[in-house]
# Entry
Amino acid sequence: MTDAIVGVVGAGVTGRRLATFMLGQGRRVAVFDPASSGMSREAVRVAQAADLAVTDVVTLCQPHPHANLAAEYLAAGTSVVSVSADISDVRDLLDLDAHAKHHNAALIVGAAMSPGLTALLADHLWRQLHVAEEIHVATHGTAGPACAVQHHNALGETAIGWHDGAWIERPGGSGRELNWFPEPIGARDCYRAALPDPILLHRLFPSVARISARVSGTRRDRLTARLPMLTPPHAAGDLGAVRVEVRGAAADGSRVTVIAGASGPTGDLAAAVAASCVDACLGGSVEPGVHVVGEAALEPSSMLRCAVDRGVQLQEFTGVARSSTW
# Structure
């Protein structure tokens, strides 16, 4: 559908990059964001969010919450892609399944770097094991000011995880762990944070016994997480990275740990995943209802390759000095 119209709510770092991807494919783009004027001149700006209900698919790239606006677009029969990374908002989005089906529209949840790319990498690694028992996610970087604020707040809020058949809650900023991200990020201290990845990963891999998610942070980040941000975030975002580790067993019963990751401008990583979700919606293969990035119905392997085609450089730990082939 090269003549499709893609709606974008939020012209921040991720929204602008998504629009660039879509325009590069010959698609028309309509944008709603009264607070920003940085979108390409090729994109049409609309005066109200409701104006995007006539597009073929709308991607929500603005700060959370997304659920109420998503419900409005779904009621108009317009499919929606959400990049929300807020736990409460993600839960509300997942609850829209019956609403989406009733209006014959699709909603794809978790279409960013985290959640999103983390799930695609988890699926890729999960396929390498005979039995997957644990999934551990770590992320670094923010796509823009709103994303930076959410990252800051997440370190000060209650973190959730899946542990041996039960949900657990831990203080944000606890559980320090040194994780190695793909270069140029390298080693970073990471802490528990209020991230929705465990919720979505458990939905994708219900048999996995343990799921955790952490974000990188400095000692200062951890100590000030419950206070207002002391310095304004970088308007253009920064370099980001994801690291996914899956532990389990090989066919011969031996213990195996597989690790993969990616690094690059955070907004680019998020937008590449969101763009792949838009492609899926426009391709007509997504059934009405709520879907999560990484589920079989969305063909995660193909979606990951689409993200790679848009510049996401994946690296996989193999025990030797080389990256994986993609």
Remarks:
- The first helix runs from residue 13 to 24.
- Residues 243 and 261 are 4 Å apart (CA to CA).
